[in-house]
Protein backbone atom coordinates (compact mmCIF):
# COMPACT_ATOMS: atom_id res chain seq x y z
CA UNK A 1 0.00 0.00 0.00
CA UNK A 2 1.69 3.22 -1.10
CA UNK A 3 -0.21 5.72 1.02
CA UNK A 4 1.22 7.64 3.99
CA UNK A 5 -0.06 5.68 7.06
CA UNK A 6 2.22 2.78 6.16
CA UNK A 7 5.24 5.10 6.06
CA UNK A 8 4.58 6.47 9.53
CA UNK A 9 6.02 3.37 11.20
CA UNK A 10 9.53 4.44 10.27
CA UNK A 11 8.71 7.99 11.37
CA UNK A 12 7.58 6.76 14.77
CA UNK A 13 10.77 4.73 15.13
CA UNK A 14 12.90 7.75 14.19
CA UNK A 15 10.94 9.99 16.56
CA UNK A 16 11.51 7.58 19.45
CA UNK A 17 15.26 7.81 18.83
CA UNK A 18 15.52 11.52 17.97
CA UNK A 19 13.06 12.93 20.51
CA UNK A 20 12.72 16.71 20.28
CA UNK A 21 15.21 16.89 17.41
CA UNK A 22 12.59 15.55 15.00
CA UNK A 23 9.07 16.69 14.24
CA UNK A 24 6.75 13.79 13.47
CA UNK A 25 4.30 16.29 11.97
CA UNK A 26 6.91 17.63 9.53
CA UNK A 27 7.98 14.06 8.69
CA UNK A 28 4.34 13.19 7.96
CA UNK A 29 4.01 16.24 5.70
CA UNK A 30 7.04 15.12 3.69
CA UNK A 31 5.44 11.68 3.29
CA UNK A 32 2.25 13.30 1.99
CA UNK A 33 4.37 15.17 -0.58
CA UNK A 34 6.04 11.88 -1.56
CA UNK A 35 2.67 10.19 -2.01
CA UNK A 36 1.17 12.88 -4.24
CA UNK A 37 2.83 11.25 -7.26
CA UNK A 38 1.53 7.81 -6.28
CA UNK A 39 -2.02 9.07 -5.76
CA UNK A 40 -1.91 10.87 -9.11
CA UNK A 41 -0.72 7.69 -10.83
CA UNK A 42 -3.49 5.70 -9.14
CA UNK A 43 -6.13 8.19 -10.30
CA UNK A 44 -4.75 8.05 -13.84
CA UNK A 45 -4.73 4.25 -13.82
CA UNK A 46 -0.98 3.95 -14.39
CA UNK A 47 0.39 0.46 -13.67
CA UNK A 48 3.71 1.57 -12.14
CA UNK A 49 2.85 3.57 -9.04
CA UNK A 50 6.33 4.53 -7.87
CA UNK A 51 8.29 6.67 -10.28
CA UNK A 52 10.13 9.98 -10.26
CA UNK A 53 9.89 10.71 -6.54
CA UNK A 54 11.53 7.37 -5.78
CA UNK A 55 14.86 8.30 -7.35
CA UNK A 56 17.43 10.71 -5.89
CA UNK A 57 16.53 13.64 -8.16
CA UNK A 58 12.81 13.20 -7.53
CA UNK A 59 13.22 12.76 -3.79
CA UNK A 60 15.29 15.95 -3.72
CA UNK A 61 12.45 17.83 -5.44
CA UNK A 62 10.21 16.65 -2.59
CA UNK A 63 12.84 17.54 0.02
CA UNK A 64 13.08 21.22 -0.97
CA UNK A 65 9.42 22.18 -0.40
CA UNK A 66 9.35 19.94 2.69
CA UNK A 67 12.23 21.90 4.24
CA UNK A 68 10.61 25.27 3.59
CA UNK A 69 6.98 24.32 4.27
CA UNK A 70 7.52 21.74 7.03
CA UNK A 71 7.82 24.10 9.98
CA UNK A 72 5.03 26.61 9.20
CA UNK A 73 2.53 24.02 7.94
CA UNK A 74 3.24 21.63 10.81
CA UNK A 75 2.85 24.39 13.40
CA UNK A 76 -0.47 25.40 11.79
CA UNK A 77 -1.70 21.79 11.93
CA UNK A 78 -0.69 21.51 15.59
CA UNK A 79 -2.48 24.79 16.45
CA UNK A 80 -5.60 23.46 14.65
CA UNK A 81 -5.32 20.21 16.63
CA UNK A 82 -5.20 22.08 19.95
CA UNK A 83 -8.19 24.27 18.99
CA UNK A 84 -10.31 21.19 18.18
CA UNK A 85 -9.72 19.53 21.55
CA UNK A 86 -12.45 19.65 24.15
CA UNK A 87 -11.65 21.17 27.52
CA UNK A 88 -11.61 17.76 29.18
CA UNK A 89 -9.20 16.21 26.68
CA UNK A 90 -6.93 19.24 26.43
CA UNK A 91 -4.82 18.29 29.45
CA UNK A 92 -3.98 14.89 27.97
CA UNK A 93 -3.82 15.57 24.23
CA UNK A 94 -2.68 19.17 23.77
CA UNK A 95 0.73 19.52 22.13
CA UNK A 96 3.42 22.18 21.96
CA UNK A 97 2.94 23.99 18.65
CA UNK A 98 6.45 25.36 18.27
CA UNK A 99 8.91 23.44 16.13
CA UNK A 100 12.51 24.50 16.38
CA UNK A 101 15.06 24.09 13.61
CA UNK A 102 17.98 22.01 14.78
CA UNK A 103 20.40 23.11 12.05
CA UNK A 104 21.52 26.67 11.49
CA UNK A 105 20.49 27.83 14.94
CA UNK A 106 23.99 28.84 16.02
Shape: globular
Structural class computed from helices and strand pairing: mainly alpha
Number of strands: 0
Overall residue-averaged pLDDT value: 83
Percent in helix: 55-70%
Strand content of the residues, in percent? under 5%
Major sheet summary line: none
Compute the CA-based radius of gyration: 16 Å
The total of helices stands at 4
Distance between the termini: 41 Å
Which H/E pattern describes the elements? Answer: HHHH
Spans where pLDDT lies below 50 across 5 or more residues: none
Summarize the structure in words:
This protein has a domain at 4-71. It has 106 residues and is mostly helical. The protein is globular, with a radius of gyration of 16 Å. The protein has helices at residues 8-18, 24-44, 56-84, 87-93. The protein contains four helices and no strands. Helix 1 (8-18) packs antiparallel against helix 2 and helix 2 (24-44) crosses helix 3.
Helix and strand layout, with pairings?
Elements: H1 8-18, H2 24-44, H3 56-84, H4 87-93
Helix pairs in contact: 1-2, 2-3
What attributes characterize this protein structure?
single chain, 106 residues, mainly alpha
Amino acid sequence: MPITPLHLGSGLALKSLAGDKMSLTAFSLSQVFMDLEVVGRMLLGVDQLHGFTNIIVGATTVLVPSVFLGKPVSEAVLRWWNRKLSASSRTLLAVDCSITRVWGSE
